[in-house]
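Fill in residues.
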C-alpha cells in the first residue's frame, strides 16, 4: 500500500515537472500601435539563407543591394560575389564560380562544401571556409589551393556563418570554432589568431564588421571589440548585432536589447519579456523583428517603444537587410 502510494506520488510529480518544462511563454505587448502590411511579393519563396544573403527557389538572390536579376544554377546557394563572378555551393554538388554575364560555371576544387568565401581584391583568389572547419586561399584561375589550414572540428554551427573580409592587406577568416584567423593577402601566411568564443556548442562567428579602426566580432555567446590598443568583450546569449557609427546594439536571446559604446560598455538596455528577436532593420529608429509576428520600434537610446503587428509569425526562412525584411515570399521596406 505504501509502495503504491509512493509510486502514484512519483507519477504525479513527474507529470507536474513535465508540464512545467513544456510550458512556453510568448511575448505579449500591452499595446499595439497598428498593423504593418507587406509592400510586395518576391518572384519565388526563400529556400535558404546565409550570413548576408538569401537564395530563392528560382535561383535568384537577395543581398544588401536587394533582389538581384540573375539566376544561379538549380540547387545552388549564393556564397559570395565580385562583379559578375559568384561563388556558390550546393548539397552533393561541386562548388562553383558562376559567371552571371555568360551563365557559365567553373568548379572550385575543394574537398568539402563551401560555407563562406571572399573574393580577394586585385587577385584571382578567394578566401574560403569549408565544412569540417578548414579554411585558406584558393586560386580559381589556376584551380589550385594556395594555402589550406585546419581548425578544431565543430560538431554544431549556427546557420549565420560570418563571411571573410578584408582589412587593408589582411584577410580575416571567421572559423566554426569561434576564432578569427588573420592571413597575409599575398601568400596566405598566418599573421594572428583571435579567440572570440570557445567551449560552447554553436560557437561559430555569426557577426564580423569593421568601422574605422574598430573591429567587432561575435559568436552566439560572446562579443568582442578590438581597437589598435585593446580588446573588450561581453559574454551574452546573442541573437543579433548591429554595429553602427555611434555604437553597438546587441539583441539577446532572453529578449533584451543592449546599447553599448564601441568599447562594449553598456549605456542603456531595455527588456521585452519573452521576446525572441530574429533580426532588426534600422533608420531613424531601430526596428526589432520579433518571432511571434511583431515589429518593436525603439529610439537609439532605448527610451521609448512602439509595437506593430506584422501579418505572420516568423517560423520559416527570414532575412533582413539594413532597411528591408524578407519572409518566405514577401517583403517589407522601411519608408524613411
Amino acid at each position: 500500500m505504501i509502495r503504491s502510494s509512493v509510486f502514484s506520488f512519483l507519477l504525479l510529480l513527474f507529470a507536474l515537472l513535465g508540464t512545467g518544462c513544456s510550458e512556453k511563454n510568448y511575448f505579449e505587448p500591452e499595446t499595439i500601435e497598428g498593423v504593418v502590411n507587406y509592400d510586395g511579393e518576391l518572384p519565388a519563396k526563400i529556400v535558404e539563407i546565409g550570413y548576408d544573403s538569401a537564395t530563392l527557389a528560382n535561383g535568384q538572390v537577395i543581398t544588401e543591394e536587394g533582389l538581384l536579376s540573375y539566376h544561379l544554377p538549380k540547387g545552388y546557394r549564393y556564397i559570395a560575389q565580385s562583379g559578375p563572378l559568384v561563388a556558390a555551393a550546393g548539397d552533393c554538388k561541386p562548388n562553383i564560380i558562376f559567371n552571371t554575364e555568360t551563365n557559365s560555371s567553373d568548379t572550385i576544387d575543394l574537398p568539402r562544401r563551401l560555407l563562406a568565401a571572399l573574393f580577394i581584391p586585385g587577385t584571382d583568389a578567394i578566401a574560403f571556409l569549408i565544412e569540417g572547419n578548414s579554411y585558406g586561399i584558393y586560386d580559381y584561375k589556376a584551380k589550385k589551393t594556395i594555402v589550406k589550414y585546419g581548425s578544431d572540428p565543430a560538431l554544431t554551427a549556427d546557420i549565420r556563418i560570418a563571411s571573410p573580409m578584408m582589412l587593408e592587406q589582411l584577410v580575416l577568416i571567421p572559423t566554426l570554432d569561434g576564432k578569427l584567423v588573420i592571413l597575409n593577402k599575398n601568400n596566405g601566411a598566418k599573421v594572428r589568431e583571435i579567440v572570440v568564443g570557445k567551449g560552447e556548442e554553436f560557437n561559430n562567428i555569426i557577426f564580423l564588421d569593421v568601422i574605422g579602426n574598430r573591429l567587432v566580432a561575435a559568436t552566439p555567446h560572446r562579443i568582442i571589440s578590438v581597437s589598435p590598443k585593446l580588446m573588450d568583450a561581453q559574454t551574452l546569449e546573442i541573437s543579433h548585432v548591429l554595429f553602427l557609427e555611434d555604437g553597438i546594439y546587441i539583441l539577446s536571446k532572453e529578449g533584451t536589447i543592449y546599447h553599448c559604446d564601441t568599447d562594449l560598455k553598456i549605456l542603456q538596455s531595455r527588456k521585452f519579456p519573452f521576446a525572441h528577436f530574429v533580426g532588426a532593420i534600422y533608420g531613424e529608429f531601430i526596428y526589432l523583428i520579433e518571432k511571434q509576428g511583431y515589429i518593436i520600434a525603439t529610439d537609439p537610446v532605448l527610451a521609448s517603444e512602439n509595437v506593430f503587428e506584422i501579418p505572420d509569425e516568423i517560423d520559416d526562412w527570414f532575412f533582413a537587410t539594413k532597411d528591408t525584411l524578407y519572409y518566405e515570399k514577401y517583403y517589407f521596406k522601411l519608408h524613411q
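The chain has one helix and 33 strands.
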